[in-house]
Amino acid sequence: MGDNALLTRIAERLDEAARNATAVEQLPEKISNDGAYEAQRLSIERRIARGERRAGIKMGLTSKAKMAQVGVNEMTWGRLTDAMLIEDGGVLEMSRFIHPRAEPEIAFLIGKSLAGRVTPLEAAASIAGIAPAIEVIDSRFQNFKFRVTDVIADNSSSSAFVLGPWNAPDCNVDNLGMSLEFNGLPVGIGSSAAILGHPLRSLVAAADLLARYGESLRPGDILLSGAATAAEPLKTNSQVRVRVEGLGSCGFSTA
Ligand code: OOG
Ligand code: MG
After folding, report:
1. Which residue's C-alpha comes closest to atom 8 of ligand 1?
2. Residue 233 phi, psi (nearest 5)
3. What residue ranges line ligand 1, CB within 6 angstroms?
4. Residue 227 CA to ligand 1 centre (angstroms)
5. Residue ranges of the domains in the chain?
6. What is the mean pLDDT of residues 221-237?
7. What number is the average pLDDT over the span 82-104?
8. How many other CB atoms are there within 10 angstroms of residue 166's CB atom?
9. Could you give the CA distance from residue 143 to residue 70 in angstroms, rounded to a whole number?
10. I want to staple 114 with a disulfide (CB 3.0 to 4.6 A). Which of 4, 27, 93, 217 is the partner?
């Protein structure tokens, strides 16, 4: 089988696993990171062909807590579509997911294109807004177990996200307290500094990593900068909330 046919098959398998909320085995195929990013692109192309629209980019494994949780020591990125957005205060249907986990994040709204190697100053100038966010990750692999190439092909486990209120693009994001709460009780506490030392660095890294695959950040894109703490498994009938010091909060309930 040629490389293309192999990557198309992986893309289809992971897309179907997500659609049917059914876990699959880790990829038996040996592929490179480049191959895995191509499989990811092909799998998201299937969503776009079904009518979903690009919403932005997510960064994964930008904190030590996250790397340690999944045993992968490399930053990865994935693609967000409009169908993954859950309205702030909305409901997440557990039956649509395999084993979803929530993560406290900070989102950037991109105002000006950002591509390739950029300085933190250029990255800051591309921001149009900053919001507290929750990412719901849901590895399509059994037991949430994967290697770096598996998770890249699987769109970095991305499956849903919630955005809180937009703050001014120049508000401070350095060392802000961040918490994840289930039913009003904190289950994860951290600082925005856990995200590569400063969440702006995640934006710089995103521009650079995306450029390696002919991609860039575009005006209107959302950039999820990565979780500040380990992810927490969701349960039915809970209230989930993320608070970021000075930025506000956002939440959803599970059913
Ligand atoms: C990979 C995705 C990690 C983050 O914010 O670090 C991620 C995973 O843990 O399944 O989204
Ligand atoms: Mg995340």
Report:
1. 157
2. -60, 135
3. 60-62, 66, 70, 103, 135, 137, 139, 151, 156-157, 226-227, 231
4. 7
5. 3-254
6. 98
7. 98
8. 16
9. 11
10. 217
